[in-house]
Specification:
Oligomer: heterodimer
Shape of chain B: elongated
Distance between the termini of chain B: 27 Å
Strand content of chain A: under 5%
Structural class of chain A: mainly alpha
Shape of chain A: globular
Largest sheet of chain B: none
Helix content of chain A: over 70%
Helix content of chain B: over 70%
Strand content of chain B: under 5%
Distance between the termini of chain A: 32 Å
Radius of gyration of chain A: 21 Å
Number of helices of chain A: 6
Number of strands of chain A: 0
Order of helices and strands of chain A: HHHHHH
Order of helices and strands of chain B: HHHHHHHHHH
Chain lengths: 233, 221
């Protein structure tokens, strides 16, 4: 708690700086795509969110290992703090994807493999959040959730593979899934700036949420002690 | 091994004597099979085409329905705490319980599938493929569901949560299960799907008892 305070302002400053640069490049200093026009700029929000939707689950899985193996309370706090953020980033990735899909593919939603597995990831996040609400105050609750988080982490690659397989079985290869479009630097640069901006934003929010969670636990234990003292007096 | 068999016999006997739940499951399965054609319409060709998907959804929902009781009774009456002191690892006990759960939930549903095939006017070959796919895929559903059931032991009154957590994880089973039944889009795809289904079932059955044992230990402590 004492030292994490010193992270907050630097993280906020770095994130703000990257956002300022990234947004400026994304809006004013990057070319419109020759096919998609200005809608290509949605990418600068969409891709960082999509990246974080998976990165946050990775962090949760690592925290789950920490919780199960070392029983470290901070691992529990980290898992709990990350889950709603992961859900939010995934929802944003789906939402911006739909907004981008409408003008470019002519549809808000397509049962494309990548979109489908992102939707499933969103459902897994929702399940984990519900589980946190139900199990949080129980002895060993966080470690039970760690088990489910890890089972999910093992399953996500299998789900991704199977959904890709399902997609190719049911519909022909889609035109929009170009294999690694060679992006010019003028587009890559703002994209990287925005990815850094969002990643630092997540680091900031995660720090803040973990601090809040620790304070919450302190308040709870103070309350308990207060009640116990009141009972003896 | 004898302890394992004794556990299986005990659980089977308990399931037989208390009855009821298997019957409820079958009733639910048939009810799903009845409302689907009513919702879709009595078009026989369409129903036959949708039959693999409808049967898999019916089986999946029915199996998730009966999930939360898997460990709850043994937890509440204390037998689970006793079993932890048996000379059998808890993971082996979990495997035995999964086996019995498969026998009293999945197997009756598979046996009822010819009735569903009749309702959906499936032909004999498709029915045969369906039964094979269900035999290959349902162990994975039981194994994954067991993890949800083990967590549900700690959820007082929140048993409904387990299916919500487990359902997204069973999507690969659903995908390969339906693909294994569907008349091959290209030659070989349905047998590849069948092999994937078997692989998922084997992996899930091999690893989930350990996760379940860990979750049950945490729930008991």
């Amino acid at each position: 708690m004492a030292w994490s305070r010193f992270f907050i302002w630097p993280l906020a400053a770095i994130s703000a700086l990257f956002f300022a640069l990234g947004v400026w490049f994304a809006f004013f200093n990057s070319p419109a795509d020759y096919q998609m026009g200005d809608t290509v700029r949605i990418m600068y929000v969409h891709v960082p969110n999509a990246w974080l939707s998976q990165m946050v689950y990775g962090l949760m899985a690592v925290s789950a290992v920490g919780s199960l193996v070392w029983r470290h309370p901070m691992a529990d706090v980290s898992m709990k703090a990350a889950a709603p953020q992961g859900a939010a980033f995934t929802a944003m990735a789906l939402f911006t994807g739909a907004l981008w899909g409408r003008p470019t593919w002519g549809t808000f939603w397509e049962w494309d493999g990548r979109m489908t597995s992102t939707l499933i990831l969103f459902l897994i996040y929702l399940g984990l959040i519900a589980l946190w609400r139900a199990l949080e105050h129980q002895a060993n609750g966080p470690r039970l959730i760690a088990i489910v988080t890890l089972v999910g982490a093992v399953n996500i690659p299998i789900i991704k593979f199977s959904v890709d397989w399902w997609n190719t079985l049911h519909q022909p290869a889609s035109v929009f899934r170009a294999d690694g479009p060679t992006m010019p630097g003028s587009i890559l640069m703002p994209l990287f700036l925005m990815m850094f901006a969002f990643t630092f934003l997540f680091a900031l929010l995660q720090t803040l949420r973990m601090r809040t969670e620790i304070e919450r636990r302190r308040v709870r234990s103070l309350e308990r002690r207060h009640v116990a003292e009141g009972a003896t007096a | 091994m004898s302890a394992f068999l004794a556990l299986v016999r005990r659980d089977l006997t308990l399931a037989m004597r208390s009855g009821g739940s298997t019957l409820t499951l079958i009733a639910f399965y048939l009810a799903v099979g009845t409302i689907m054609p009513i919702a879709i319409g009595p078009d026989k060709q369409l129903l036959a085409q949708l039959a693999p998907a409808l049967i898999w959804v019916g089986v999946l929902l029915s199996m998730l329905l009966g999930l939360d009781r898997l460990f709850l009774n043994d937890h509440e009456d204390g037998s689970l705490a006793l079993m932890r002191h048996a000379n059998l690892p808890l993971a082996a006990i979990c495997l035995g319980k999964l086996l019995v759960h498969w026998l009293v939930t999945a197997l009756p549903l598979i046996l009822m599938t010819p009735v569903m095939a009749m309702l959906f006017t499936m032909d004999g070959a498709a029915l045969w493929r369906t039964v094979l796919a269900l035999l290959a895929g349902t162990p994975a559903v039981v194994a994954l569901g067991g993890i949800g059931a083990a967590v549900a032991v700690s959820l007082r009154g929140g048993g409904f949560l387990a299916p919500i957590i487990i359902l997204p994880l069973t999507i690969p089973v659903l995908i390969f299960g339906v693909s294994a039944i569907a008349p091959a889009a290209g030659a070989g795809t349905s047998s590849a799907a069948f092999l994937f289904l078997v692989a998922i079932s084997l992996l899930a059955t091999a690893f989930s008892p350990f996760a379940i044992a860990l979750a049950l230990k945490l729930a008991e402590d």
